[in-house]
Amino acid sequence: MKAIVTGAAGFVGSTLARRLLNLGHEVVGVDALTDYYTPSLKVSNLARLKDAKFTSISGDLNDLPLKHLIDGADWVFHQAGQPGVRKSWGEDFGVYSKANIDATQRLLEASRQSSTLKKFVYASSSSVYGDAERYPTLETDRPQPRSPYGVTKLAAENLCTLYASNFGVPTVSLRYFTVYGPRQRPDMAFTRFVRAAVLEEPINIFGSGEQVRDFTFIGDIVEANIAAAIEETEPGEIFNVAGGTSISVNGVLTLLEALNGRPLDVRYGEKVAGDVLQTGGSTSRIFEMLGWRAQTALEDGLAMQLAWARDTFGRRGDSNA
């Protein structure tokens, strides 16, 4: 099979691309190498994808000739987008709408003209739920995002549903619940936590630390994408992809302290606008339809990320690694 992976230089995109290559598929990776975080990290991620079956394309999805790109592809894994709740407020919103909404629309428009495309898998987010109606949250519960970032992810997801219902584009939207693991983005909580633990630096927490999250290991996220591509589904399906272990940030820190074997220096600050108190997704539907369920316990996944941090930060002391 031939797969297009957008955002192929990112945390999820590069891990997914590597898995697809290991399975023997041809992969075309597309990435704009933006500077939301250090581009050298993205270049390093791409270096891990060197393979006779891998082609790298550098460019913005809003500018590239997408019909030509998608011609002959069996799968599109749309992982690209502008991440982050905190920066999505104010004058940066235009960046989010362009990267998350406009780019998705262009990709869908090109996909509806393809005669070979079997599945379009979109990386959505649990941020679309905001303060959810119930926990664990079902896919049928009302989305009510609390940040501009969440609004753009929901808009792109709605575009996937529209192109599915109007043109039969075989879309599947996967609502990721807080992805973690080795090589996670440097701005994300677990990377900040494990780096600080290894270097014995302060850990800064936004809010009280009592906010609850459903954390999902990167390997499980990748397998959910592959299941969504392979299994037969109706166009426009939406699935939660959640780890199944809702725990407070403070609970994570307690677990990390035990794994690290020495006390952590935790400091608390102001809550972030748009941050929600709790996330937790039901995965009964994705198990029923795709046979997927998370395989990695939080303690095991966190231990793997800590081991990666010891090798990365302990060896080089590089804050951008």
CATH superfamily of the domain at 2-178 and 217-242 and 281-294: NAD(P)-binding Rossmann-like Domain
Distance between the termini: 33 Å
CATH topology of the domain at 2-178 and 217-242 and 281-294: Rossmann fold
Order of helices and strands: EHEHEHEHEHEEHEEEHEEHEHH
Residue stretches low in confidence (pLDDT < 50, at least 5 long) are 316-321
**What is the number of E strands?**
13
Strand coverage percent: 15-25%
Strand order of the largest sheet: 3-2-1-4-5-6-11
CATH structural architecture of the domain at 2-178 and 217-242 and 281-294: 3-Layer(aba) Sandwich
Q: State the helix count.
A: 10
How much is the radius of gyration in Å?
Answer: 19 Å
What does the overall shape look like?
globular
| Assigned CATH class of the domain at 2-178 and 217-242 and 281-294 | Alpha Beta
By secondary-structure content and strand pairing, the structural class works out as: alpha/beta
Specify the helix fraction band: 25-40%
Major β-sheet annotation: 7 strands, parallel
Query: What do the pLDDT scores average to?
Result: 96
Topology:
Elements: E1 2-6, H1 11-22, E2 26-31, H2 39-47, E3 54-58, H3 66-70, E4 75-78, H4 93-111, E5 119-125, H5 148-167, E6 171-176, E7 179-180, H6 189-199, E8 203-206, E9 212-214, E10 216-217, H7 218-230, E11 237-241, E12 246-248, H8 249-260, E13 266-269, H9 284-290, H10 298-316
Parallel strand pairs: 1-2, 1-4, 2-3, 4-5, 5-6, 6-11, 7-10, 8-13
Antiparallel strand pairs: 9-12
Helix pairs in contact: 1-7, 4-5, 6-8, 6-10, 8-10
